Amino acid sequence: METSPPKQYSQQEIEQSLYEVRKKIYPRALTGWFATWRWILVWFTQIIFYGGPWLTWNDRQAVLFDLVSRKFYIFGLVLWPQDFIYLAVLLVISALALFLFTAVGGRVFCGYACPQTVYTEIFMWVERKIEGERSARIRLDREPLSARKVALKGSKHLVWGAIALWTGFTFVGYFTPIHLLAEEVMSFALGPWETFWILFYGFATYGNAGWMREQVCKYMCPYARFQSAMFDKDTLTVTYDTVRGEPRGPRSKQADRFELGMGDCIDCGICVQVCPTGIDIREGLQYECIGCAACIDGCDQVMDKMGYPKGLIRYTTEHAMINKLGRRDIWRRVLRPRTLIYFSILGLIILAAAMSLALRQPLKVDVIRDRGMPRATEDGSVDNVYRLQMMNTEEKPNRYVISVQGINGVSIVSESQFEVAAATTKAVPVRVRVPAGAAQPGSNRIKFVIQDTDDQSVKITEKAVFIVPR
């Protein structure tokens, strides 16, 4: 039996298989139901992002992460380093929400609300307004260098740069009061760290949304790599109906596709031209697909022009394609055990976090015993000195009274009432005295009780140790 010799590959073919040079993608502009929703989310997210630092609350910036004073202001809520647990809870909620959305609708977050998608959409809109639609941009890139080309390209990059710098300025405005930051920018008095982060974040926005675009989604974002672990056969994904569409091929609008033995796909390529990552959805689900549904809008427009039913490309599930399920059956299977578990855990964590914040005491106290030796008085009493680190998390000054319990006759012989300014900490020295013979030599347990003089519900009890010399 003769065998054919192994195929010989040239060095150029080997290099091409290992590293493929990026082919620039020119997404085509389109309108449609999903495109409208994508722009609604662009406006919604950017109004929140760009407008957030300019909101005021109690004569201060409403949302400010003040790293210098180690306080996070979120409207009426003031969080301190001791409240780090809430950041951990927020990350857990975000992860579970992502799992839930992915199990239900695939990469719906990527297609509509991911910052990379949002800023790429904004930058592409600028590009279309300055350089023209898809065909005009292709022609412009192929033209030799000219004054017109330099003017168009330069104008586009200037606008991109302005958007990127404003984005970097806004980002830093969440960590440095934005009114102060604006004054520093206008007077050319920016500090080194503010300058660095404005330029760094601006450069990242400019590079990712203007130049790298789909490369970020394909190669830098880890979500594309592990998304399949969260998919199942009832996950809604952007799907091409192969049974209905094949065999594909061009034909006139008047032609009868049934007589020609052809499917509904006219092989126009619109689905590829509108795709921001440049894939062909007709080849099946691919990890590069971000679920933006641009191909659905594009294909539906073509189906309308041809007089065919919409939905050749649509959001559907693997089970629906195999079993030919209707829309009602598809949505009924959304509430399956997997999504119900995600939803239940997510709901419980959100409820617990909300209750914790609602019941959170606006007073925090740390008790530190002085390292010095206990002091005996002339009548045989014993004094211990403590430092109470009192934190008032409310945005109004509060007055607190301190008492001590645990040993018969124990009392505070120093000042026992203190006022702590709004949203500040105060170190309070407290001298505690125990009468002679009231406590055993060695360590004795006591409790400090700190109570708000105006609000009886604000009450903190902290344990401490009282030392009696042997």
Total strand segments: 16
Basic shape: elongated
**Total helical segments:** 18
Low-confidence residue ranges: none
Query: Structural class of the secondary elements?
Result: alpha+beta
Strand content: 15-25%
User: Sheet bearing the most strands, described?
Assistant: 5 strands, antiparallel
Mean pLDDT comes to 90
Oligomer: single chain
**Which range best describes the helical content: under 10%, 10-25%, 25-40%, 40-55%, 55-70% or over 70%?**
40-55%
How big is the Rg? 33 Å
Organism: Noviherbaspirillum sedimenti
Protein name: Cytochrome c oxidase accessory protein CcoG
Transmembrane segments: 30-52, 72-101, 158-175, 195-212, 340-359
Domain 4Fe-4S ferredoxin-type: 256-284
Keywords, please?
470 residues, alpha+beta, Immunoglobulin-like, five-stranded antiparallel beta sheet, four-stranded antiparallel beta sheet, 18 helices, 16 strands, elongated
Word description of this protein:
It is a single chain. The protein has 470 residues and is an alpha+beta fold. Among the domains are: 168 residues, no CATH class; 106 residues, Immunoglobulins (Immunoglobulin-like, Sandwich), CATH 2.60.40.10. The protein is 44% helix and 19% strand. It contains 18 helices and 16 strands. Strands 8, 9, 10, 12 and 14 form a five-stranded antiparallel beta sheet that branches. It has a four-stranded antiparallel beta sheet with strand order 13-11-15-16, with no helix packed on it. A three-stranded antiparallel beta sheet has the order 3-4-5, with no helix packed on it. A hairpin with a 4-residue loop joins strand 3 and strand 4. Helix 2 crosses helix 5, helix 5 packs across helix 9 and helix 7 packs across helix 9. The radius of gyration is 33 Å and the shape is elongated. This is Cytochrome c oxidase accessory protein CcoG. InterPro entries: 4Fe4S_Fe-S-bd, 4Fe4S_Fe_S_CS, Cyt_c_oxidase_cbb3_FixG, Electron_Trans/Redox, FixG_C, Ig-like_fold. It holds the Pfam family Fer4_18.
